[in-house]
Write a structure and sequence with these properties.
About 15% of the residues lie in helices and about 25% in strands. The chain is of the alpha+beta class and about 375 residues long. An eight-stranded antiparallel β-sheet has the order 2-3-4-15-14-16-12-13, covered by helices on one side. Strand 9 and strand 10 form a beta hairpin. The N and C termini lie far apart (about 75 Å).
């Protein structure tokens, strides 16, 4: 009996100490609830954590009806004069999933650093997620890969092994000189149902058919099904980050997204809960589109990706602490930091400075100007 009591005290003491550490560790999340959830999953309580989260969302569903606050659909220039070649055409206005558009809804605005010639590299637009939850707004970012170079940053928590990595938080002064955007990657690897490859190493085996963000050595990024044409391991691939299955294929949502909380779309919360979600897609011209925001079911996320032009798309991360997209401004070829950042949505929990913090331990993607975009050209045309 004495031995049992001693063991119990030791176990409880250990759990208490580790929980206290987690609650004061920003790498576990911005909020205390997220930190407690991460601690629980690390200590074999994933099922309980998921049940608690599901019950909370069931009892606190996304608001129905209403209108978003004034100024929710972005600001900044929507048309600029730029060189007439060497870049993709600007995206066209997004048709809102909510029905009739409100003024400014779905209109693209220039965001982040432009090239030395003044060409926009990123556009942002904002739409309501569906016809029901009309007081919410989700953000969409369109990125031009002819002007931008992608990089996967790995972390000590995700992928959780295989380090040290050449690219890992914090973003260094040298790598910030032409940084334009940074955004969250996917689930923890034990929940991602996929693999992880970077720096010539397979950290987790890649799953055939898995939804994959693939970055090539020339800095080009795409999204697709691993094993499809062009998405097999070869010496031109720099990184592969998998997360679940595609939710958009052939320019339309894949079948089965509306099935009640299908585990296929994430065993943590399933697909039908209207929560903070993020996703990444690729258009037929090769542009990348990021979608992130509140009150999104998995089918809503797919719908917005398609409306933004995605021919293929996948879910990235979910929940308020992990959905984050930032653009950065400042003179070119000059180091910047988180203070130069701007979140896609003001309600995003994590600040743009998280990617510059030594404690940030999750993986994420960055987009930086290509080297050939630091010298201005003179031929211009209307763009936007």
């Amino acid at each position: 009996m004495v031995l049992l009591a001693a063991v119990t005290i030791a176990v409880v003491g250990y759990l208490g100490l580790t929980l206290a550490f987690a609650l004061h560790n920003p790498s576990y999340g911005v909020s205390y609830s997220a930190r407690a959830a991460e601690w629980g999953r690390q200590h074999g309580m994933g099922g309980l954590v998921t049940w608690v989260e599901a019950e909370w969302y069931r009892l606190h569903p996304a608001k129905v009806g209403g209108k978003p606050p004034a100024g929710s659909f972005g600001n900044g220039p929507t048309k600029v004069t730029v060189p007439n070649a060497g870049h993709l055409a600007a995206p066209t206005r997004i048709a809102t999933p909510a029905g009739a558009p409100l003024p400014g809804e779905g209109v693209w605005h220039v965001a982040g650093r432009t090239t030395a010639s003044g060409i926009p590299t990123i556009y942002e637009a904002f739409v309501r997620p569906d016809p029901v939850h009309t007081s919410y707004v989700v953000g969409v970012a369109w990125m031009d890969p002819t002007l931008l170079r992608a990089q996967l940053y790995s972390g000590s928590f995700i992928p959780g092994k295989g380090g040290p990595f050449t690219y890992s938080a914090p973003i260094t002064a040298a790598n910030s000189k032409n940084l334009v955007a940074a955004f969250n990657a996917g689930f923890r690897m034990q929940d991602a149902n996929g693999g992880y490859y970077t720096q010539g190493k397979t950290i987790y085996p890649l799953r055939y058919g898995g939804a994959s963000v693939v970055i090539f050595k020339d800095g080009t990024m795409t999204v697709g099904r691993w094993g499809a044409a062009g998405l097999n391991m070869n010496n031109q691939i720099a990184s592969v980050r998998q997360n679940l299955d595609l939710i958009v294929n052939d320019s339309k949502p894949v079948p089965g997204l509306t099935a009640a909380n299908a585990i296929k779309w994430g065993k943590t919360l399933g697909g039908t809960f209207n929560v903070w979600r993020s996703g990444l897609g690729v258009t037929k011209t090769g542009a990348l589109v990021y979608v992130g925001g509140p009150a999104l079911s998995i089918s809503d996320l797919a719908s917005v990706l398609v409306r933004a032009g995605a021919v293929r798309g996948m879910e990235l991360d979910i929940n308020t602490d992990w959905v984050q997209y930032s653009t950065y401004n400042g003179p070119l070829n000059t180091p910047i930091n988180g203070a130069n950042g701007h979140s896609l949505l003001p309600t995003m929990n994590g600040p743009p400075s998280r990617y510059f913090a030594t404690w940030w331990s999750r993986d994420y993607f960055t987009m930086s100007l290509r080297d050939n975009q630091t010298t201005a050209s003179t031929t211009t045309t209307s763009h936007g």
